[in-house]
Amino acid sequence: MRLDLLSGLNAEQAARRPAILITDLASGEQRLVRAKDIRNDPLEDELQEYLRLGKSGLLEKEGHQFFLTVQVPPVKVVIVGAVHISQALAPLMRGVDLDAIIIDPRTAFATPERFPDVTVLAEWPDAVLPGMSLDRYTAMVALTHDPKIDDPALSAALRSSCFYIGALGSRKTHERRTQRLMAAGFTDADIARIHAPIGLDIGAVSPAEIAVSILAEIIATLRRDRRRAA
Amino acid sequence: MLSTDADILKTAEAWRRAGKGVAIATVVETWGSAPRPVGSHLVIDQDTNFLGSVSGGCVEGAVITEASEVIADGKPRMLEFGVADETAWQVGLSCGGRIRIYVERVD
To answer: Would you kindly state where each structural domain of chain A is located, as residue ranges?
Structure first.
């Protein structure tokens, strides 16, 4: 691999842009196709399909065998609420290579002391989410219990292509949340995107256990197509 | 820190820029139950330092040995591993799967 191609792949990754490296396995020839250039590529249809699946693989075309190294951005998790569960969740996420960002306007909660080594924004979701790209590689987790903070974040997530949206709270809390979101114009299909009560049902009790159940649900959603029983 | 494929390729770039000979091994095809998915990387430098994996630790040794030759002569190679007793390699996959691995030098 030429160093400039390797460098290009790494630059696209750092910028959260998908890219595909195409290797002709017989000749060793390679080229890098950035997401924005796919539509001008002779292999456009095939590249789009590989990108949609987010998986690397072999492609036979006109007597050539190509290997496509498909690189998609790292998964980012926006955690709304600098609460006790978040303190357990952030380090767990780092352990499985998910990028975490924590948002909470309550400055007593959103402190670097409570969240070492994590990006913490002491801002209202309304103020910071519009500047953030909530793409299909992003998950949103609302953990404050406070509609003033959670609802605007959930609304932004529902208007985006986030692959996972979860909200903490009992069934009753979620019923009231659903009514508010419907009143704001969201549909049943929108509401169905929200995982609530949040997390896989593992009987979690402590904040750390709840964090594990949330993390497991995010991974289960991300890897849906690989699960034995969906 | 754990190593995602992105971290592994970043490391490959950093090693090369530091003037080292570097090879990248990539799983390009798997059959049956294979320990690491297609697209997984292992990077190796001229001193056999390595990062990442292409199996569950079963064939890395052989890949690293081949990588040293790729670093030396610059010719990419395709390696194939199956269960131990069915291949010419000294190593194999105890899980019963088969994998094909492309090894190339960073130039």
So the answer is: 3-71, 76-226
Helix A171-183 × helix A147-158 angle, to 10°: 60
Contacts of A92 in chain B (CB under 8 A): none
Residue B78 touches partner A, C-beta closer than 8 Å: yes
Cβ within 8 Å, pair A57-B78: no
* CA quadruple A201, A202, A203, A205: dihedral sign: negative
Asked if the Cβ–Cβ distance from A28 to B105 is below 8 Å, we say no
Amino acid symbol at A146: D
Q: Shortest CB distance from A1 goes to which of B17, B29, B104?
A: B104
What is the interface pTM, i.e. ipTM, of the complex?
Answer: 0.85
Q: Which listed CATH number (3.40.50.150, 1.10.10.10, 3.40.50.720, 3.40.640.10) goes with A76-226? A: 3.40.50.720
Cβ–Cβ gap A97/B4 under 8 Å: yes
Q: What is the pLDDT along chain A (230 residues), one digit of tens a residue?
A: 999 999 999 999 988 899 999 999 999 999 999 999 999 999 999 999 998 888 899 999 989 999 999 999 889 999 999 999 999 999 999 989 899 999 999 999 999 999 998 999 999 999 999 999 899 899 999 999 999 999 999 999 999 999 999 999 999 999 999 999 999 999 999 999 999 999 999 999 999 999 999 999 999 999 887 777 65
Alpha helices in chain A (DSSP H): 3-14, 44-53, 84-95, 125-128, 147-158, 171-183, 188-191, 207-222
Q: Is the Cβ pair A55, B39 closer than 8 Å?
A: yes
